[in-house]
Design goal:
By secondary structure, this protein is of the alpha+beta class. Among the domains are: 2-82, Beta Barrel (OB fold (Dihydrolipoamide Acetyltransferase, E2P)), CATH 2.40.50.100; 208-408, Chloramphenicol Acetyltransferase, CATH 3.30.559.10. The chain has helices spanning 78-84, 99-117, 143-152, 171-180, 188-206, 219-229, 240-252, 299-315, 320-324, 388-403; strands spanning 2-5, 15-21, 28-29, 34-40, 43-48, 53-58, 65-67, 71-77, 209-217, 260-263, 266-269, 275-280, 286-291, 318-319, 328-332, 351-355, 359-365, 368-382. Strands 9, 12, 13, 15, 16, 17 and 18 form a seven-stranded mixed β-sheet that branches. Strands 7-2-4-5-14 form a five-stranded mixed β-sheet. A four-stranded antiparallel β-sheet has the order 1-8-6-3. The chain starts with a strand and ends in a 6-residue tail after the last helix.
């Protein structure tokens, strides 16, 4: 039996609540199936299972908020089901007990039963009625009312039933509560900001950071993209970010000291590059979603992954594996107009890249000044695992890929 628990979707998450169960007791699930939608301060996340089996019990109810690690469901694994369904072994004639043995067992059992009948009845199996007390009823709520409650910082789970069908809370119910108690409450974005601050403060305290930065020439990449995108519709075009992300992922395969996790006093590198894509949310804050096996993605696939993840992150639809498995992170503020960024490592990772905006600058080649398109890329890394010499080699490897974008396709 495997206990499914409230998962963690980042070091800055403390609690989550079940918005919707997609399964019920008795349902068979396979690896990758979405069993529930979980609401966090970052939005809705789809929880998937990593094993095959049968859901035997739902411990948490919809709307219930629980801390990370608390049980929410029970899953009987398929191999357990197979072992439980094995037929009993019928003994062969050689293994059958003798008549004398059977007679002795019957006599002994009869005498034992007479003695047990005179004892006090066994009450260990009588249910504890204290466990049968009804749990507090959490009201249903419409999507619009849920969004409004989040905006106003109102904990709708603590409210009485509303005026909608079956007592569901509606938009007017939430507005009425706010009018009665207009004092500001902590909103989810405030809580997210506090959680992020706690995480990065711990990171700066515990991780010995070192920083490197390199200006990388983009002229070849821009020229190649212009030719590739010439006859394509806007939604099929590749943007420069996909080229940069692919170059980072390919380069990391040669530098495992920057791709993995530092846990319990030692470092574990990852065989695959699960590139963490830092996404800013419209309601404030950010989340990091993993682009799995990024080292194997061509530029078209990388562009599709980036676009898809940003859209789902802002609407609420990322999967649990995307939130848990990033081995290294890329923070891109280029589209916000920043020339460069010095990022803070997200534990338990050991490195993070910062990407500035693409910009035109004077560039000297063979004592000749010309205009060039460049990007400033920074690397923050963990000195417990690597050093500046290795980090500089990694940045130069990325730069070489950017000069030959056709090799990334």
């Amino acid at each position: 039996m495997k206990i499914l628990t409230m998962p963690s979707f980042g070091a800055d998450m403390a609690k989550g609540s079940i918005v919707k169960w997609n399964v019920k007791p008795g349902d068979h699930v396979s690896k990758g199936d979405i069993v529930a939608s979980i609401e966090t301060m970052k939005g809705l996340i789809d929880m998937e299972v990593y094993d095959e089996g049968t859901i035997t019990k739902l411990v948490a109810v919809e709307g219930e908020e629980l801390e990370i690690g608390r049980p929410i469901a029970e899953l009987q694994l398929t191999n357990e089901e197979s072992s439980n369904n094995k037929p009993e072994q019928i003994p062969t004639d050689a293994a059958l007990p003798s008549v004398e043995t059977i007679t002795t067992q019957v006599v002994n059992l009869s005498g034992k039963q007479d003695k047990e009948d005179k004892k006090t009845p066994n009450i260990s199996n009588i249910p504890d009625h204290s466990e049968l007390k009804p749990k507090p009823q959490i009201p249903k709520i419409s999507p619009a009312a849920r969004f409004r409650a989040k905006e106003l910082g109102i904990d709708w789970r603590q409210l009485a039933q509303g005026n909608g069908p079956n007592g569901a809370l509606q938009l007017n119910d939430i507005n009425a509560v706010y009018e009665m108690h207009p004092e500001p409450q902590e909103s989810p974005s405030d809580l997210m900001r506090q959680a992020i601050a706690s995480t990065v403060s711990r990171s700066k305290r515990d991780i010995p950071h070192y920083y490197l930065q390199l200006d990388m020439l983009l002229d070849n990449a821009v020229r190649w993209l212009r030719e590739h995108n010439a006859d394509l519709p806007p939604n099929k075009r590749i943007l420069i970010n996909a080229v940069i992300y692919s170059a980072i992922a390919r380069a990391l395969t040669s530098f495992p000291a920057f791709n993995g996790f530092y846990r319990d006093g030692h470092y574990e590198s990852s065989d695959s590059v699960h590139l963490g894509n830092a996404i800013s949310l419209r309601q404030g804050g950010l989340m990091v979603a993993a682009i799995h096996d990024a080292q194997h993605l061509g530029l078209i696939e990388m562009m599709e992954k980036i676009t898809d993840q940003v859209n789902r992150a802002r609407k609420g639809g990322l999967r649990m594996s995307e939130m848990q498995e990033a081995t290294v992170t890329v923070s891109n503020l280029g589209d916000r107009g920043s020339d460069s960024i010095q990022s803070i490592i997200l534990p338990p990772q050991v490195a993070i890249f910062g990407i500035g905006r693409q910009r035109t600058v004077p560039w000297i080649v063979d004592n000749t000044v010309s205009c060039a398109s460049i990007v400033s890329m920074s690397l923050a890394a963990d000195h417990r695992v690597s050093d500046g010499h290795l980090g500089a080699r990694l940045l130069n490897k990325i730069n070489k890929y950017l000069q030959k974008p056709e090799t990334l396709i």
